[in-house]
Amino acid sequence: MTWIHPLSAEVEETANVLGSKGYGLVVLHRLGMPVPPGFVINTQVCSDFLQNGRFPNGLDDELTNAVADLEAATRRRLGGSERPLAVSVRSGGSVSMPGMMNTILNLGLTTEATAGLAVETGDPRFAIDSRERFLSSFAAALGPGRAEVPNDARRQLDLAIRAVFSSWDTPRAKTYRVLHDIPHDLGTAVIVQAMVFGNRGDHSGTGVAFSRNPNTGERTPFGEVMFGRQGEDVVSGRSITRPLSELAEREPAVWAALLEALQRIEGHYRDACSVEFTFELGRLWILQVRSGGLDGRAALRVAVDLADEGLIDRREALLRISPRHLGSARTPRIATDAADILTRGLGASPGVAIGKVATTADRAARMAADGPVILVRPYTSPLDMHGLAAAAGVVTARGGPTSHAAVVARALGKPVVVSAADLTVDVDAACVRAGGRIVAEGTFITIDGTGGEVVIGSPDILTGTTDPQLHRLLAWADELSGNNSHRDEGERLAAAHAVLSRQP
Amino acid sequence: MPHSSRQTSSNLLVLHSLRCIGFAGLARIADAAGLPESDVESELIDLARAGHVSHTPGDFGGWGLTESGRAADAVRIAGELDTVGARTTVAQAYDAFTPLNTELLDLCTAWQLRIVDGVARPNEHTDPVYDSRVLDLFTDFGHRADVVCAELSAALTRFERYRVRLTEALTRARSGELDYLVDRFDSYHTVWFQLHEDLLVTLGIPRDWAAADR
């Protein structure tokens, strides 16, 4: 039995064994993409570990060999004082779920290895920053009360792997599986890869890139980038990100490589894709790939465009659009092309709201007598409830899509944007600040609870289903079903689906 | 009537209830405090005279806390905690509460949004199998949450009110009044949100320090 598989184009195991993240990395290898070397500990090990409380027989030896191979491939030593190897350790189930341990970065940076990295790079600040990121991600992964970090790299690796496996059984993860019909014995894989350092100076960084705009479906690369930072900062929204397009100006070679990668990946999946990437000293690395997952107008536009581009045929385009997509496409959205975007957070309750900025619940309640108000808060507490009730929409700087604020706003049926990370609320000065701009209380803003945009003034709003793409898709549907009578959009799509399901 | 040491005075109970539920009418304050409306009104008038609360008239009116009321509550509620010697118990309960809070917010979100094909969309409540699954998870959660509430109540009697209100909300939801999960001022989530606030205020933890993503 083999428990561990190197990340390479030759691996034959399925996504069930490797987890979807690991499988995606194998696909990237096959496409010739730059992927940091590493290996996958498969999902079977997790099932065994959870059943017996220990690693299966033979895993230790395999792990030793896998680490040795990785050391040979990188000409480095895990925890070594010269040319140290540092690795990332990530969970990789066939689906990602809340509560699972996500990532430990820079593992292997013992005190000796950190000193070695400082000497090798001539950049002690970078080495120390990397070690600190390791310590904080390790402590977070192991949970409170177990903060002692061993100074032995292999021991760190063992503990990190255990932490990933144990996180499979957190109450949050269990709940998620019950809700989504995921078997409890599926297990997660663990991905161990040589680190690439986005925090190694100005010509390094990290980001997320979509091959097409996930909000509109437009065929323009979209995403976020951070210079001189490491991956977790993007995902957790802890740091201030820049629009992806800045990469084109600052790192043209990385930008060109990224565009080429996105195009090749799209060609493989025949769908819109996104990648997590890092660049170190001007060299691009791809860390994760996802395909599809768009909704509403964006999904419609991508399906029609892909058919026009010849990547899929019209039948496939029709099959990719469900009545649910049509439903979501009716949700009002801000037309972002000409909009004056103040900041962006995460949409957590769909819909568009426009109103005057209010920075406290009391002011929101008072101002609401004269017209609609958007309550903007750092976070919300029960003391904000009457303001939430009076407001047309809510923005919070902190809190995620499952925060109290998001739950309450959804219960009230109001659009909400959360995690608008670069937004600060100054109650005393009665203003909010973002992106170097100051917006006074009483200024009109518009928020989009799907895309997470916060826009100054009253931008154009896309409502109903007036998209040309929708009409083209429905025309294809009618052509297929041979029925041109005047019917509901959902019926026209369903008739085409019925024809397609009868054809091989 | 003499108070046992674990019993909060009516005056502080009314002030603190308002601190934890936010701007509200008499009925909601009385429900949170577990006192008759007439008693609550009398305490509110005293508190208003001291400048701790203020009343806004009108259809959307009610009682709200002033800055001085907020400060006074922080001092008095911390004083009570130490007088009774319950700080350790409440701090331990808060440690147990934190992961439960994350879990409850997941459940509320699962009730409101449903992930299909990797995309979260509003739950239209057209799939009884899914909804009853979420409701069962709420019930299971309720049992585990009640253990923490029981520990809190044993340390400080005023916490008993949360047990009563949470149980009431869940019982009603289970009997078909589904808006008692997240959609009302006396829903399970709203009461839980107030308990969260209460623990933070009682232990003097600023909300921005508490679990960064909540």
UniProtKB/TrEMBL annotation, chain A:
Identify the keywords attached in UniProt to this record, alphabetized: Kinase, Pyruvate, Transferase
Family annotation (InterPro entries):
ATP_grasp_subdomain_1, PEP-util_enz_mobile_dom, PEP_util_AS, Phosphohistidine_dom_sf, PPDK_AMP/ATP-bd, Pyruvate_phosphate_dikinase
Residues covered by the Pyruvate phosphate dikinase AMP/ATP-binding domain: 54-238
Residue ranges constituting the PEP-utilising enzyme mobile domain according to the UniProt record: 372-452
Q: Name one GO molecular function term.
A: ATP binding
* Transmembrane stretches, start-end: none
Cited Pfam families = PEP-utilizers, PPDK_N
Q: Superkingdom of the source? A: Bacteria
Give the protein's recorded name: Pyruvate,orthophosphate dikinase
TrEMBL record, chain B:
Q: What is this protein called?
A: Uncharacterized protein
